[in-house]
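Task: encode each sequence below as structure tokens.

Item 1
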Amino acid sequence: MSMRFSTKARRGMVVLTTAAALALGVAGCGGGGGDDKKPESSASASKQNGSDPSAQEGQAGEPLAELRGSDGLLLQITSAQRDAGGFVTVNATLKNDGAKSVVVPAALSGNETEIVRNGRSLGGATLVDVKGKKRYYVLRDTDGRPLTTTGFSTIKTGESLSVFMQFPAPPTDASEVTFQLPTFASGTIQISG
């Protein structure tokens, strides 16, 4: 072995040992007396599906509307809540009441290029204020992604999926609106808040 190779190998071992000692030191300083508890769920995601709002968890009672879609799909709207930020959040359950697994129709995403480009969603949903003669489309973030549940494709028989959609809020005197989603029947819902 040459002297040069031995020196490089020794230097490498010293660097590796130092790095390992620093990593152990940092890891040892990171923990405390067990006070660092992680929350059981985040505010933006439910325990069942990644993009469900936490406000929908634990809701029970009669749905505001039940809308039938193609291939045995059923949408049960559980709440339509007006928020202080100037928008309305519609929470619902999408259920497969059919006899076989269903691929969720791509038509639910709507036909706007910006929304379709971001994958499967409920971006085709609208709220219609019949009195004010205005239609409200699903909100989008700054990257053009719809503010709805996304990333679903197939629902097995009897399975249900909690979903949400956010819209601009109609005027406060418009508490009754028509909810529309492609391939589903329309339904009238009450906005609370």
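Item 2
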Amino acid sequence: MRIIFAGTPPFAAQHLEALLGAGHDIVAVYTQPDRAAGRGKKPQASAVKQLALTHNLPVEQPQSLKDASAQRQLASYNADVMIVVAYGLILPQAVLDMPTHGCINVHGSLLPRWRGAAPIQRAIWNGDQQSGIAIMQMAAGLDTGPVLLQKEIELAANETSASLYEKMANFGPPALLETLANLPALQQQQQPQDDSQATYAHKLDKAEAELNWSQPAAVLERHIRAFNPWPVSWLALPEGVVKVWQAEVQADANKAPGTILQADKSGIVIQTSDGALRITELQPPGKKAMPAAAFLNGRASWFTPGQVLALPTPTDS
């Protein structure tokens, strides 16, 4: 089959690499325009573009696929199917209808659960015990198309977004290859999603990474794992913003939420609305992440037992 591949980050590049390794005919690669990155803010090619160029594949980087000229260019590749993995651009109906077998998408959840931009993080934060990879026939709505194939992934008790991302990067490419090998049959057997069971994984916001001590300790511990490695959970102190990388749930001391119960080499224990949270790895402003013992060396005054940390200011939703 003649395949157009559309994707941008390393996760997408791993799928493109699998397609190339399996000998599929990639007639064009679509990816986001180069973005300024690094200290010098120089334009940097996406992981997908870099891989495509090493294989001498045609690369297209339109600002939008709604433009008529961009659609004519895409149509000129006469593709049998378009594979979309974390591309980042909306595909209008005209594009969805172009390839013979339409467009298929690799999504990081068991649809219809966690449609949207951040399924990995939302699943962990919510306390889900299971996630997975869904290969979906794309439709005009947000992740609403029928499912062709799903692979389940069990979440570990200490799962972070980083570790679940790696699991999905291992599950996704084989699932995609399996789908392509059986595409006509899977399309005939496709399973419509039950919209009444849908949940939405809204895009992450740095503001929601702030820890709120009025929440239960178990929720905050999941919050920290969900926001690792980006944007990283944080709390505001007079000395600056401190990022929190790792913590565990402890018994509480029946104090006001935000009360610092303990601060020593074993960790920084803070009361929550239900239970307490022991922070074991954190990051001071301008420094690398470090164990609590190293953090408190020279910064013990930042976390004084009995001190009550301020709760986040409520914002209008």
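Check on item 2: Residues 71 and 94 are 8 Å apart (CA to CA). The domain at 206-302 is CATH 3.10.25.10 (Methionyl-tRNA Fmet Formyltransferase; Chain A, domain 2).
End of task.
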